[in-house]
Please model this.
Amino acid sequence: MSIDKGGSAPTDTVPTGSVENTEAASAAVTAVDPRLLVREQGLGGYLSEFKRKMRAGDLGSLPVVLGLIIIWVIFQSLNSNFLSAENLSNISVTMVGTGMIAVGIVFVLLLGEIDLSVGSVSGVAGGAFAVLSVTHGMNEWLAFVLAILTGTAAGAIHGFFFARIGVPAFAVTLAGLLFWNGFMLQILGSNGTINLDSNGIVAKLTSYYFTDVAAAYALAIVVVAVYFLTSYLGNRRREAAGVPSQPLAETIVRTVLLAVLAFAVAILYNQYKGLPLAVVIFIAVLLLTDFMLRRTTFGRKIFALGGSVEASRRAGINVEMVRISVFAISGTFAAIGGLFIASKIASANQGAGGGDLLMNAIAAAVIGGTSLFGGRGRTWNALLGVLVIVSIQYGLALQGIASPIQYMITGAVLLATVVIDAVTRKTQKSAGRA
Model:
C-alpha cells in the first residue's frame, strides 16, 4: 500500500516491488564490487587493488615466489654453477618424488587435517614394486599398478578410521607411519636392499630425457595454451554470470609472461640433456589435480569441508566419503612419489620413506602456500614449496655445508611460512574475509 505526499487516502493498488521511501531510495548509492573498478582506473587501479589485497591478507603465492628469488640470488652469488642448466635440471628431477607426495598432502591440508604416514607409505610402494617385479618376476607394468594401489588402500584405511570410527587423523596416520614402516621392512627381508632394473619402467622415471629439442618447446606451448584457454573460458563464464572477471587484455599479458617463463625453462633443459620425463609427468599431475580441485564438484566439496564440516554436512555433502577419498588420494600420491624416489636411487631399501622425507613433503605443501587451517590452497603450491626446499638443499650442498645446517635452514623457512599463514589468517578475519 502506498500513500501520496499530501496524506490522501491509500490507493487501492500496490505495484509489485514498490519503494515506500522514494526520497531515501533516490539518495541511496548502489554498492559496487571494488574489483569492477580496477580496470577502469588503468595502472593506478591495479596498484590500488594490490594494496587492498595486502591489507586484507590476500598474499597468495607472493611470499614464496619472492623467497625463491632471494634463495636463487644468494646461492648464485656464492657459486656461479647454481643456476647452470645442469644444476637446475637436476633440481627439477630430484624434486618430483617429494613433490608428488606433497600433492597428496595438499588434499589433506585442505580438510584442515594432517597425514603423517606418507613417508612410510612411499617406502612400501617402492618395496612392493621391487619384490613383485624383481624377486617374483611379475610383469613390471602390473607390479607398477599394484604398488600404486597399495598406497591407495593404505590411505583408504586411514580415512576409514578417521571418518567412520572418529579416531583423530593425527593418531591414525601416526600409527600408519609405524605400521607401514614395519611392513616395508618385512617384505624387503633380511637383505634389506633390492636393486631395480636400470632399463625398467621405474628406473626410467627419473633417468629418461626427451633429447629432441622440440619436446621441451612443445611442452611449453601446451602449458601456455592450457593456461590461456582456461583463463579465457573462465572469464567468459564469469561475464555471463555477471560477476567480476579479467579483461581480455589482462589475460593476454599474463599469458605472455607465462610464455616467456615457459620457453626460458625449455631453452635451459635443451642446454643439458633435454626435457626430463619426470618433469612432464609432474606437470601433468599438477594440471589434472588443479582441475579436479577447482572445476569439479568433488573439489568444491573438499574446500567446503575445510571451511566448515557442520555447514557441509547440512548442505548434504557426504562428509565421510569425501574424507576417505581424500586420504586415499594422499596414499596414492605417496606411493607414486615413493616410486620416483626408488627410481632416483635405482633400488628399494630399508631407509626408504625415512629421514626427512615426511617433513619435507609437509613443509613443501605449507611453504608453497597451502594453509594449515584448511580451506585454502592449490596443488601448484606443492611445486613452489618443493622447489624452495630442494633449491636450499642443492645450494648448501654446492657450498659443502653439512645436513644439520640444511635441516636448521629448512625448519626456519617452514616456521616463517607458518607465521605468515597465521598472521594472514588474522588479517583476513579482521577484514571480514575469513
About this structure: Strands lie at 193-195, 209-210, 275-276, 347-349. The longest helix spans residues 213-241. The two ends are 41 Å apart (CA to CA).
